[in-house]
Amino acid sequence: MLVRASGIVPWRRKGKKLQVALVHRPRYDDWSWPKGKLERGEEWVVAAARETLEETGLRVRLGTPLPTSWYGLGTKDGRPQLKQVRYWAGTVAGGDGALEHEIDEVCWLPADEARERLTYRRDREQLDALVDAQADGLLDTWTLLVVRHAHAVGRGSWDGPDPARPLSPVGVRRADRIVPLLEAYQPEHLLSSPSLRCTDTMAPYATASGLGLQTRKSLSEEGFTRSPDKALTRLDQVLARGEGTALCTHGPVFPGLLRALTNLAPQGRERTMLTRLARQGIDKGEVLAVHLAGIGPQATVVHLERHRPPA
């Protein structure tokens, strides 16, 4: 039996020194990272953000993934249990710090002191990865969330102008499910094609977050057909700003955007994945989280995460 959980290693800099946040559970008298089990149908990143908020009272913005932990939990009903815990680096974006009964203390410590305080040796693996990323200049990242609009009413069954074609019921449900996913990364800017199927994909999160949704014709199918390079100009502007951004557009626009991001990825998994997605495309309603370090032409793609809608 597999028990799935996820959590976050919150980090900050105090002066020039890296600090991380540990939580203390009085029930077990242990020090570890904030984490918890996934609820039914919940995505890993959503659970990580939710559990961290519940345990620490802090809203933490997810950064790059950290190593996954695997360990046994003994048996239940005669069956062995294996626990899988996925982790992300994260920075505090808000919250009141109020603690729940399961946690009685949150402690910010320098990395070397945290290593000594951690109860479980397995938790040091995430700390080591965090420290290594800091040394390599790849810890302080921002996230570009590339969103393909959710499923829309088919062109053949729509009599109105194509930009006014709405989401289907399946698409509406996916737009709602995207809200907690985007909340985990907490983008600071929302960009969209002005086509209704794109704005309606982003509208639930715009409402929930209170962020304004900016529309750009260069991200529409019609604008792309007229001037393909303008979408790349929009991407360059996002890269130059270097702040968390969710960008919703259409299938035909993606190959050029992803090829441009490929040029920012070193050889390896991320470059290979971007090349493949530029060729094959991404699913309707999919969110591609692109973690970048640095800004502008010097930005580096550090990691990619695909969040695909249920089949």
Automatic annotation (TrEMBL):
**From the record, what ranges are coiled-coil?**
none
Q: What does UniProt give as the signal peptide span? A: none
In terms of CDD domains, this protein maps to: HP_PGM_like, NUDIX_Ap6A_hydrolase
Provide this UniProt record's keywords sorted from A to Z. Hydrolase
- What Gene Ontology molecular-function terms does this entry list? bis(5'-nucleosyl)-tetraphosphatase (asymmetrical) activity
Which BP terms does GO give this entry?
A: AMP biosynthetic process; ATP biosynthetic process
Among Pfam families, the record links this protein to: His_Phos_1 (PF00300), NUDIX (PF00293)
Q: Which PROSITE patterns match?
A: NUDIX, NUDIX_BOX
Can you tell me where the transmembrane regions are?
none
What InterPro entries does the database record attribute to this sequence?
His_Pase_superF_clade-1 (IPR013078), His_PPase_superfam (IPR029033), NUDIX_hydrolase-like_dom_sf (IPR015797), NUDIX_hydrolase_CS (IPR020084), NUDIX_hydrolase_dom (IPR000086), Nudix_hydrolase_domain (IPR051325)
Where's the Nudix hydrolase domain?
Answer: 1-131
For this entry, the protein name equals: NUDIX hydrolase
